[in-house]
Amino acid sequence: MEVDFKKITNNILKGLPERKREIIERRFGIWRENKETLQSIGNDLGITRERVRQIINATLEQIKHQHSETILQPIRYLSDYLKEHGDLKREDRLLEEVGRQKYQGCVYLFLTIGEEFQRYNEDQDVYSLWTIKEESVYFAKKVIQKVVEKLEERKEPHPFEKLLELIEENIRQKALNSYIEVAKKIETTPEGLYGLIYWPEINPRGIRDKAYLVLKRAGRPMHFLEITQKIKELPYQRTDVSPESVHNELIRSDLFVLVGRGIYALREWGYEPGTVKDMIIKVLREAKRPLTKEEIIQKVLEKRIVKVNTILLNLQDKTLFEKDKEGRYYISSKAEIT
Questions:
Q1: Domain 1-117 is in which class?
Q2: What single-letter DSSP state applies at residue 243?
Q3: Could you state, in order of their start, the residue ranges of all structural domains in the chain?
Q4: pLDDT digits (tens, 9 = 90+) for 165-190
Q5: Eight-state DSSP code of residue 126
Q6: Cα–Cα distance measured from residue 268 to residue 289, given in angstroms and rounded to the nearest whole number
Q7: What distance in Å separates the CA atoms of residue 251 and residue 261, rounded to the nearest whole number?
Q8: pTM for this one?
Q9: CATH says 276-331 is which class?
Q10: Section 230-252 average pLDDT
Q11: Which of 106, 110, 251, 332 could make an SS bond with 9 (beta carbons 3.0 to 4.6 A apart)?
């Protein structure tokens, strides 16, 4: 059952003296965009921040005493809401979802008035949140750590349903969602996949990370011009990016391997840096026997996106390659190869 936070807040505040009402409205951001600090309010009214705090505390006690029945409905609603979400909720998401755009200050007021609600300050692991059970915060941190460990093992983002399977805990979907929301180490992609905040596919910072993300999503080698275009199409790419800048990052970073004329792949796909000639040498070394022209072409094309004639041209280097009586190629004993 929805609660009319605007109406209930109005009924509570209209009976307050003007100065107290103003302080409460400014401190909690009621009917305005932002909450104000104690210092800001005190400076404006010509009183100390401690005096502002005293007035707020006394006014909240007055509200509890005079409107004990009126405040029950919003407090019960918020309590039920938190229970439904694993007994806790990230503060900004809670205010947005319940208070929408206009009445977040009203929601914040009732969270502060309700004695069962506890605000947990932001730390290195979680964002600021509200809870009805302190032990739920510690349980959430335990679950978060387990999710982080599972993601580190798999080294790739997962959909939410997969996370439910991985943690092997009897946790409701809304509860796990609340836990992940408060976690600083876990974020989502625009496609709704969950991963670790330092992964480039989750939080791409520069051109290099964005190029990596584009290739990772494509799952295939791409020309740097196509990579540039895909970077421009990313939802969080707000500035223009030039093909030259992208190409420079692809050349500099060992995340990428040039596999054709202007075509790049991810090293993690098994590609290794080197020229076509280097690839022929590698193929022959791995085979540990002479190979036919067709065998070499097939294996090199698995490692490089080049024309067949380019491979044949490199095979003609007699300082590196020789042929046996059957016309199969092997590395020359005179070749100087490191």
A1: mainly alpha
A2: H
A3: 1-117, 134-196, 207-254, 276-331
A4: 888 778 899 999 999 999 999 998 87
A5: B
A6: 28
A7: 13
A8: 0.70
A9: mainly alpha
A10: 89
A11: 106
